[in-house]
């Protein structure tokens, strides 16, 4: 199944289900869990990356445990709006997740997110 646009996420996720945000890195995956109203997200866990099967097993364990209905993956776009190698890697990760088990997935542009946090 393909990923969906952010504005379509509400219709794709069952009521009262949470969202899980993923910040993919080469060594870790940072996770943040929303409340059931999708107003607040709090840090949940950092997965130390090993191999995809182990990473996705842990991810789906948390999805089930916390009643997650959708994933939001940070998309590390270049400042000019183009997609570099990290974007391709993130999209491939999403595709591989979908091959294991369907869950609605959308992407969030991460440009300037670090600068906003540091302010």
From TrEMBL:
SUPFAM superfamilies: Ribonuclease H-like (SSF53098). Signal peptide: none annotated. GO terms for biological process: rRNA 5'-end processing. The keyword Cytoplasm applies. Residues 17-117 form the YqgF/RNase H-like domain. InterPro entries: RNaseH-like_sf, YqgF, YqgF/RNaseH-like_dom, YqgF/RNaseH-like_dom_sf. GO terms for molecular function: hydrolase activity; nuclease activity. Gene3D superfamilies: YqgF/RNase H-like domain. GO terms for cellular component: cytosol. It holds the Pfam family RuvX. Keywords: Cytoplasm, Hydrolase, Nuclease, Ribosome biogenesis. The keyword Cytoplasm applies. NCBIfam families: RNAse_H_YqgF (TIGR00250). This is YqgF/RNase H-like domain-containing protein.
């Amino acid at each position: 199944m393909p990923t969906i646009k952010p504005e379509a996420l509400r219709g794709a996720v069952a009521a009262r289900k949470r969202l899980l945000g993923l910040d993919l890195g080469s060594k870790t995956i940072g996770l943040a869990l929303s409340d059931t109203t999708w107003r607040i997200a709090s840090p949940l866990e950092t997965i130390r990356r090993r191999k995809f099967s182990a990473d996705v097993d842990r991810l789906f364990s948390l999805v089930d445990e916390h009643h997650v209905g959708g994933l939001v993956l940070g998309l590390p776009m270049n400042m000019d709006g183009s997609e570099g190698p990290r974007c391709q890697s993130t999209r491939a990760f999403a595709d591989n997740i979908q091959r294991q088990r369907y869950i609605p997935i959308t992407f969030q542009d991460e440009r300037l997110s670090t600068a906003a946090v540091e302010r």
